[in-house]
Amino acid sequence: MASIGSRTAFIMDYSNYTSEDFVLDDYFQKWVAGKLPEEDTFWPDWVREHPEKGPLISQATFVLKALDMDHEPISDQKVREKVRQIIDNATDKPVSIHPFYQSLWFRAAAAVTLLLGLGWYLMSQQKPAPMLYDELVIAQPQPLLEKINNSDQPLRISLSDGSVITLQPNGKLSYPERFETDKREVYLLGEGMFEITKNPKQPFYVYANELTTKVLGTRFSVKAYANDKAIIVKVFTGKVSVQTRNPPAHSSEQPFNQREGIILTPNQMAVYDRPPAHLTRTLVENPVLVKTTPENKPDFHFENTPVSQVFERLEQGYGVKIVYDSDQLKNCTVTAPFDNESLYEKLNLICKVIRASYEVIDTQIVISSRGCN
Amino acid sequence: MSEYTVATELWTAFKKGDKEAYGNLVALFYKTLYNYGTKLTRDKTVVEDCIQDLFLELWQRREYLSETEYVRFYLLKSLRRKIYAQQSLQQKWLHQSLETNTEGEFLGEFSIETRMIEVETTEHHLKKLNQLLGKLTRREREVIYLKFYQELDYEQIAAIMSINYQSVRNLIYTAIKELQSAWFEE
């Protein structure tokens, strides 16, 4: 299977090659892909010596270019981190493999990222946010284990229930050695990726400063940026409940006496501003498809489709609510073979076609249009 | 030295417990595996976890692994199995129909506009090409990917996708023939 490079070229007689043969030839493929070293001038020479083969070569090049695909980018930096992580985790303890395996399967349950910045250094004149983490941890009656990540690498922590938490540098996590039977509670300062095993009888709570995030099931992320004084919870699938927490008595200068709580469904996010200690709900910046399986991937190919149906398809696909005046838009149709564009890209195009505009108000998308004729 | 020789040497050294060779092997194939994995599922964390899981297992089972010339093939195949196994388990867990095909979609997309400007093409060619590429099935796209991007041979592709050798050949030939027809389209 290895291409032996120019050596092959000397043995091979390409003059009887068909276009398919060229397409399937490793050496030719490498040339078209620009993977041959500059010194290797076999193909340019060959093409020059065989002008009659020009059309064949063009056709084969055309097909090969067409067959190239788009690739998900990953940075070298990220690759280095991942490789390092794998090397660090490679141990000879066969026991460690099983829980990790399991947690991977059951990770379908929940993935939570919690981020808590370490303070807004540039604005050090301002009163820093209270160190709620320490207060919370001290207030717990049962002894807690604490992991502090002082390294510059993410730290993987396994909990007794099989959940795995990857704690970023400068983060702290406190958790009991064994969870209580009715609930699982952990305390976080800093940033962490949570992979929570699902157990409806034993809900999982993450306490991060003023916010409590309760996992009702499936997948979501929590990002708490202390530096812009906001904590953000985003939901991808399933349901998540987010509540503000009553502060300990001695930090009562904070003006929230009332607990606020909201439930988030897919593509919604909660923003908690601290201060003014207020919890609001909106849509995430980039809503993703909900409940997608390969079998029922929503079809966004529209051909003269009434816009009401288009919106309905989008509502179902992304689990969002789209509000519009159906009377005004009754003559509008959309023709667009949508595929992997984001929801907002799709909306932009649709709005262009039907001469409309949209805005996101609360968790709804509101369309205003002058109608179509 | 070609990738194959390098990989085979690293493989042999890693099997003997050489952690540095192991690290080099991971580094050599991480991007390749990530590239393939992200075509099998949209969830990048699943891909990352499966790759990590795959390599950690390899380390633990290193003494029992056999020698292989085809490291790339072996790794791609194992990753594919892992990702699909996880998807089917997730589906089971979500109480979805168990009869459904456990193979997911294949996410490799052809977006030709940028690349085709390098060769002589007309708008008409592009239009026709887009139509043809859009019609390719997930299997055809995966075969094309494994053949032209991962540079595997027919036998290896057949083994990875659990289809027979002849089907792989046919899928590729049909796809090439189709695309060639776009070239003659005027």
TrEMBL record, chain A:
Residue ranges occupied by any Protein FecR C-terminal domain in the UniProt entry: 300-367
Gene Ontology MF: a single term: sigma factor antagonist activity
Gene3D superfamilies in the cross-refs: 2.60.120.1440, 3.55.50.30
Highest taxon above the source species: Bacteria
Domain FecR protein stretches: 152-240
Annotated InterPro entries: FecR, FecR_C, Ferrdict_sens_TM
Protein name: DUF4974 domain-containing protein
From TrEMBL, chain B:
RNA polymerase sigma-70 region domain span: 25-84
A family per Pfam: Sigma70_r2
SUPFAM superfamilies in the record: Sigma2 domain of RNA polymerase sigma factors (SSF88946), Sigma3 and sigma4 domains of RNA polymerase sigma factors (SSF88659)
One biological process term in Gene Ontology: DNA-templated transcription initiation
CDD domains for this protein: Sigma70_r4
Sequence ranges assigned to domain RNA polymerase sigma factor 70 region 4 type in this UniProt record: 128-179
Family recorded in the similarity comment: Belongs to the sigma-70 factor family. ECF subfamily.
Protein name: Sigma-70 family RNA polymerase sigma factor
